[in-house]
From TrEMBL, chain A:
<protein>
    <recommendedName>
        <fullName>Electron transfer flavoprotein subunit beta</fullName>
    </recommendedName>
</protein>
<dbReference type="InterPro" id="IPR014729">
    <property type="entry name" value="Rossmann-like_a/b/a_fold"/>
</dbReference>
<dbReference type="GO" id="GO:0009055">
    <property type="term" value="F:electron transfer activity"/>
</dbReference>
<dbReference type="InterPro" id="IPR014730">
    <property type="entry name" value="ETF_a/b_N"/>
</dbReference>
<comment type="similarity">
    <text>Belongs to the ETF beta-subunit/FixA family.</text>
</comment>
<dbReference type="GO" id="GO:0005829">
    <property type="term" value="C:cytosol"/>
</dbReference>
<keyword id="KW-0249">Electron transport</keyword>
<comment type="subunit">
    <text>Heterodimer of an alpha and a beta subunit.</text>
</comment>
<dbReference type="InterPro" id="IPR012255">
    <property type="entry name" value="ETF_b"/>
</dbReference>
<feature type="domain" description="Electron transfer flavoprotein alpha/beta-subunit N-terminal">
    <location>
        <begin position="23"/>
        <end position="211"/>
    </location>
</feature>
<dbReference type="Pfam" id="PF01012">
    <property type="entry name" value="ETF"/>
</dbReference>
<keyword id="KW-0813">Transport</keyword>
<dbReference type="InterPro" id="IPR033948">
    <property type="entry name" value="ETF_beta_N"/>
</dbReference>
């Protein structure tokens, strides 16, 4: 069974991100890391191929520095990396991203395409479903656990009201939630061996993508603005009833 | 008055595109790392943050070795990482160094465990062992299923190990080993000890496996430093060893000293990790602690301390990286290792003590990492060559005069 995992390099979530007021894009001049959400995807892919055979290919679209994220996934155990970098793709919207990734995925041999539920920088949360639409295969989203038997994939799917058990016939796009597994650390041997693994660097033309990115992007960010400051919270002074008032407050908000 | 005005003017604003590197690496020395080395750094850093820091203060307080972390460091491939073949990762010397820095940002005891296993126990087998010995021990030691220790120091032979009393004499087809070794990291948890003993031909190395009749260990208690690390005494009472236990590749003090040189190299990097952890704790604390109605980071005395600490870190990192480059290019001289070990451990201990003062009373509790690092560094200052011995090694190299004899 072969798995493609979509990954992205994002500004380190531990340091505050900033938007560039001139381009309206996220500044990427600080520490960049493999999206922590994608580590769950890579781990899920590795577990599937360890159980069923086959190999994991990671696919990413992003600037040249994105190689570091691809290399980390290779060090964790993926067999092959694909990185699409092109100036024309700078500032791509979600649909463009999905088109590019889908075009690269089509060139791979795959049974399952794994993604995170959303990226930790853009948070659009729609790319997995778009990829499935473009590839014309089912999308199984928000999986908390996953298993495969024959050509049938079964996933437990987290929803607001409970857990759904969903089945789909391969090939499928699967988005996994954080916590679906415990991502492994890359081993030093894996790190040393990652450079020897195959790495594809196709351009948009190699993927027959003549008309994506740049001017053809359907969505534009017209302005950016600071988020409104949060209103001050309510401070409950304890005069013997604080606990009850807090419980009432939480019950009122339907938190408990 | 003009000079007063200029004195309070802050530095000229840099171009808007310039971003100042992190306070603990103000010269961005880590930019000298290769892609692989950066990934090693990030991986070990993440492991330390997630697996070591949550438990290490408790182990330090209880004086227990964190056995569960052996599998973690072995799983990453950190044991014997800079050796090639036999299940070892084969990283660059710089990669080994940066891993030591990250491990010691967790705890000097953990870094010591890794140093002893890789540089003091695996290295001599790798460098001087027979093919049979390498096959038998190295893959298991890399996997963490066998733990090693290194027996050189004795109760009355520390800085002058050539005066060791432990001896091995030929007996039939093998050897009989007698004596004892002191201050041995990993001693009682080790499956094998690489022991150096005087023979009639000079000092030889022997692999003594746990359970060999006559070989016993006892732990050294009441330590107030490296408490999350095991320190033991090794006793050899007429221990019979077959010829296959002797390391065939080296005779003389060159053998053990070459091992120490490997381990000291890692310490020169590692100590900076402990120093960095203390510095970061002090920066964080100074920005949140308020006194006299302001953050203590506003005080000039605090800023002077932090500025000196940050400068020491930059200097130490430059020394460590250059040391690594020299080692990777095969040009590293032991005197250069002495310089770096001496300078960087001293820098780290000074940083730790200064950080302690910034944290005030909180600086002496295990709620913060500072006192733990500070106490650990007291051991690092004198093990693997005391500060004094490294000073005299430098003195001899500079003047040609040997102050030892």
């Amino acid at each position: 069974m072969n798995v493609v995992v979509c990954i992205k390099q994002v500004p380190d979530p531990n340091s505050p991100g900033q938007l560039d007021p001139s381009t309206h894009l996220l500044k990427r001049d600080g520490e960049l890391v493999l999206d922590p959400g994608d580590e769950f995807g890579v781990e899920a892919g590795l577990q599937l191929v360890e159980k069923h055979g086959g190999q994991v290919t990671v696919v990413s679209m992003g600037p040249e520095r994105g190689l570091d994220a691809v290399r980390k996934a290779l060090a964790m155990g993926a067999a092959k990396g694909v990185l699409i970098s092109d100036d024309s793709l700078r500032g791509s919207d979600a649909l463009t991203t999905a088109k590019v990734l889908a075009a690269a995925i089509r060139k791979q041999d795959f049974d399952v395409v794994i993604t995170a539920t959303e990226s930790t920088d853009g948070y659009t949360g729609v790319v997995p479903q778009m990829i499935a639409g473009l590839l014309d295969i089912p999308a199984v989203t928000f999986a908390k656990s996953v298993s495969v038997e024959g050509d049938k994939l079964t996933a437990q799917r987290q929803t607001e009201t409970g857990i759904e058990v969903v089945e789909a016939t391969l090939p499928v796009v699967l988005s996994v939630t954080a916590g679906v597994n415990e991502p492994r650390y890359p081993s030093l041997k894996g790190i040393m061996g990652a450079k020897q693994k195959p790495l594809d660097r196709p351009g948009p033309a190699d993927l027959n993508l003549e008309d994506v990115g740049g001017a053809s992007t359907g969505q534009r960010i017209t302005a950016i603005d600071s988020a409104p400051e949060r209103a001050a919270g309510e401070i409950i002074k304890d005069e013997g009833e604080a606990a009850k008032r807090i419980v009432d407050f939480l019950a009122d908000k339907k938190v408990i | 008055m003009a000079c007063f005005n200029s004195a309070v003017t802050t530095a000229q604003s840099p171009p808007a595109t310039l971003r100042l590197p992190a306070a603990s690496d103000l010269y961005a020395v880590d930019d000298l790392l290769s892609d692989d080395e950066r990934l090693i750094r990030d991986t070990v850093r993440a492991m330390v943050r997630e697996r070591v820091l949550p438990v290490i203060a408790d182990h330090f307080e209880a004086a227990t070795f964190p056995h569960q972390l052996v599998a973690e460091v072995a799983g990453l491939g950190l044991l014997g990482m800079h050796l090639t073949g036999y299940g070892c990762a084969g990283t660059s010397a710089v990669g080994y160094g940066i891993a030591c820095e990250e491990l010691e940002a967790g705890d000097s005891g953990l870094r010591s465990f890794v140093s002893v296993q890789g540089s003091l126990a695996m290295f001599p087998i790798h460098a001087y062992g027979s093919e049979e010995q390498k096959q038998k021990f190295l893959p298991e030691m890399a996997a963490g299923s066998m733990i090693g220790c290194f027996g050189l120091t004795e109760a009355d032979a520390g800085s002058d190990p050539g005066r060791m009393r432990t001896s091995a004499r030929r007996a039939g087809e093998g050897w009989v080993l007698n004596g004892s070794k002191m201050w041995i990291t990993n001693g009682s948890i080790a499956d094998l000890a690489v022991v150096w003993a005087a023979t009639e031909d000079g000092v030889r190395g022997f692999i003594v496996e746990r359970g060999t009749p006559g070989f016993t260990t006892s732990d050294i208690h009441r330590k107030l430093s490296l408490r999350a690390s095991v320190t033991s005494e090794l006793h050899f009472d007429s221990v019979y060893l077959p010829e296959t236990a002797a390391l065939p590749g080296v005779t003389g003090m060159r053998g053990p000293l070459s091992c120490l040189n490997e381990a000291r190299y890692g310490i020169a990097w590692g100590a900076l990790g402990a120093g960095r952890a203390c510095f970061e704790a002090a920066v964080e604390y100074s920005s949140t602690r308020r006194m006299f109605d302001r953050s203590i980071a506003r005080f000039q005395l605090t800023q002077a301390k932090l500025a000196t600490m940050a400068t020491s870190l930059v200097q130490g990192r430059l020394v460590a990286h250059r040391l690594g480059t020299l080692k990777d290019s095969g040009r590293l001289h032991p005197v250069q290792v002495s310089l770096a070990k001496r300078a960087n451990v001293r820098a780290a201990i000074d940083i730790a003590r200064e950080a302690r003062t910034i944290l005030g009373a909180n600086g002496i509790t295990l709620e913060y990492p500072v006192i733990r690092h500070m106490n650990n560094l007291e051991s690092v200052l004198t093990y693997e060559g005391t500060e004094e011995v490294h000073t005299l090694i430098l003195g001899k190299a500079i003047t040609g005069e040997d102050a030892f004899s």
